[in-house]
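Appendix B, example 12.
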Amino acid sequence: MSALPRHVEEIHPSLWRASQLARSAGRTVSTGHDHLSRELPGGGWPVGALTELLLSQPGIGELRLLQPALSAAAKRPIVLININPPHNPGVIGLSYIGVPVDKLMTLQPQNAADALWATEQVLKANTCGAVLLWQQHMRADSLRRLSLHAQASDVLFIALRPLITLHDASPAALRLALRPAVNGINVEIIKRKGPVGIEPFDLVLKPSPVLLSPHGRMTRPARKVAPVQSPQPETVD
């Protein structure tokens, strides 16, 4: 009688125990954050899979969170796909996260359908290191298509969506809810290949490049104080 496998992954790479983190069968990219990496299957962001970051609001540190992964993926082009982006990354910010300007490609489709089509084409081409898609609302079938295209690629694919989509069904391999925190960002693991229900935790992030650059710092102009005038004596006619 043959011995039983010690790990369910030995039966099939797609199997994993719900009480344990899955041993990722695919490639991962280091998050650069030890606490976060310990909580993710394979110890990093999954490559060839759909990852969702659910933001309480844009610009809370999501790009700084992804800085180490994007820096590692910058050997190939990095594609940003967004409709009416709330924040346009500048040269200072991009160089700060280690993305050379000549490796960056930004796409601003006219509508959601064009954004999904463009994302599918980029994933199919499989020539990019990472694809970041900002999207407000996506139908379940659209998410499934993107997930399947991601699985057939060797791309770090991350969709950034509003936190209000938290309870929507999703085929994503990994879903994180992100909220602002003191000196960084608060991370709540919504979905992963492993146990959920762990307490949210804070990650300290490097300061924004705008604050680090003397040219990017915003200074508040000094308020001009009007000189105090002595009251004039009243005259009586």
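The mean pLDDT is 80. The CA atoms of residues 41 and 147 lie 17 Å apart.
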